[in-house]
C-alpha cells in the first residue's frame, strides 16, 4: 500500500516479493507480507504513533498495525521513503528482506529473544546471497573496532533504540554474531536457534544444545571474527 503514483507501489511490490522469496530457503516458508509506504516522514510518524523525528534515520520498520505486541496482532512493514529511496538497489533490497524476516517469523512480538539474535539473523538472511565482500558489508563495525578496540560484551537490547547513534555499526555487529554462529554450526543450526528462542526457549540453553557453546564462548568467537576482519590483535 503506497501513497503517490502507481509506480511507487509497483516498485515496492517487487521488492516485497523478492524479500518473501528470500525467506524460504532458511525458514521453509514464504508468508504474505504487507508493506505500507507513507508519502513522507510526517505521515510515517503519524501512522506509527511515534514522536516526530524518532524514525528519521530508519529506512523501514516492522510493527503491529494496532500499536500492541499482543499475540497474532497484524504486522506490517512501514517504509521511510526519505531514507530507503536514497539507497542503491542492493541496499534497498537488503532492508526489505531484513524487515520481511521480522514480519513472517513474528519477531516483533517475541519477548524472550535478544535483539542481537533477532537483528543479526534478519541480516544473515538478507545478506546471504549478496555478492559483496565483508570489508564493505561490515565496513562500519570494522572501522569501530580499529578505532575503539574489540567489544567486551554482546550487543544489549537497549543499544538498539531507534534514536541511538551508530545504528549501522550496531546492526553490522549483530550480523557478525549471526555469522559467527553460522560458521560454527551452519545455516540450519542458526535457523533452529532463532526459532527456538522466538518460541520461548532460553538463549543460553538453546545455544548450548545447538552449538555446544556458552554465551561467553560466543562472545570470544565473535571477538575473534571481528579481530580478523579488522586486522587487529585479539
Quaternary organisation: single chain
- β-sheet strand percentage: 5-15%
Q: What structural class results from the helix and strand content?
A: mainly alpha
Strand-and-helix sequence, N→C?
HEHEEHHHHHHHHH
Mean pLDDT, nearest integer?
92
* pLDDT < 50 runs, ≥5 residues: none
Major sheet: order of its strands?
Answer: 1-3-2
Largest sheet: 3 strands, mixed
Rounded to an integer in angstroms, the radius of gyration calculated over CA atoms is: 17 Å
What is the approximate shape? Answer: globular
Counted up, domains total 2
Beginning-to-end CA distance, first to last residue: 48 Å
The count of DSSP E runs of length 2 or more, i.e. the number of strands, is 3
In DSSP terms (H or I, runs of 4 or more residues), the helix count works out at: 11
Helix content: 55-70%
Keywords for this structure?
mainly alpha, 5% strand, globular, 11 helices, three-stranded mixed beta sheet, 2 domains, single chain, 234 residues
Helices and strands in order:
Elements: H1 6-27, E1 35-36, H2 41-48, E2 60-64, E3 75-79, H3 81-84, H4 89-105, H5 115-127, H6 134-137, H7 139-148, H8 167-185, H9 187-198, H10 203-211, H11 215-230
Parallel strand pairs: 1-3
Antiparallel strand pairs: 2-3
Helix pairs in contact: 1-4, 4-5, 5-8, 7-8, 7-11, 8-9, 8-11, 9-10
